[in-house]
Design brief:
- This protein is mainly alpha-helical.
- Among the domains are: 89 residues, Four Helix Bundle (Hemerythrin (Met), subunit A) (Up-down Bundle), CATH 1.20.120.1200; 34 residues.
- 75% of the residues lie in helices and 0% in strands.
- Helix 1 packs antiparallel against helix 5, helix 2 packs antiparallel against helix 3 and helix 2 packs parallel to helix 5.
- Its main location: membrane.
- Pfam families: Oxidored_q3 (PF00499).
Length: 181
């Protein structure tokens, strides 16, 4: 299990460097998916299957789908079709594909050797232990985090809203608008 831990950690570091150094959002997104999956394998190797599963479900699953939709919704203008063809070139997929193959080989080797029951060191972290810890001594931090996420959601909704082009601007006073009309 230690080999799986170290190889997954190495892939996570390399993929994260790929995220940081790429200027193209699609390339960075591919490296980010590989990075999140390798971090999940690190959690599994450390004996935290709940944290690993949440990493895959929440981050590598839901958040990455959101990022893919954001990239898809970007207005590429006239060069959209040419840009998509450029993104489909094999050299773009080479780096993330190689790192994903290393993760796959590590996972298959770990499963093949029957080394899945062991972990690096420490105790197993279960969903019950996480819930007891978060809603016990860390309850106030969880609630503050939830309020912060709610405030971010309301702010993003307000900032992202576009004004209707026919609606009058709300900066002027109502009496000033009547006199101008």
């Amino acid at each position: 299990m230690e080999i799986a831990f170290y190889l997954s950690g190495l892939v996570a570091v390399l993929a994260t460097l790929g995220v940081i150094t790429n200027t193209n959002p699609v390339h960075a997104l591919l490296y980010l998916i590989v990075s999140l999956i390798s971090v999940a394998l690190v959690f599994f190797a450390l004996g935290a299957p709940f944290a690993g599963a949440m990493e895959v479900i929440v981050y590598a699953g839901a958040i990455m789908v959101l990022f893919v939709f954001v990239v898809m919704m970007l207005n590429l203008g006239d060069q959209g079709e040419a840009q998509e063809r450029a993104w489909l070139k094999p050299r773009i997929w080479l780096g993330p594909s190689l790192l994903a193959v290393v993760l796959l080989v590590t996972l298959i080797a770990t499963l093949w050797s029957g080394d899945t029951g062991r972990m690096v060191d420490g105790e197993i972290l279960t969903a019950k232990a996480v819930g007891t810890l978060l809603f016990g001594p860390w309850l106030m931090a969880v609630e503050l985090g939830a309020m912060l996420l709610l405030a971010a959601l309301v702010t993003a909704s307000h900032v992202g809203r576009t004004a209707h082009p026919d609606a009058p601007h709300s900066n002027a006073e109502p009496s000033a608008r009547k006199e101008v009309s």
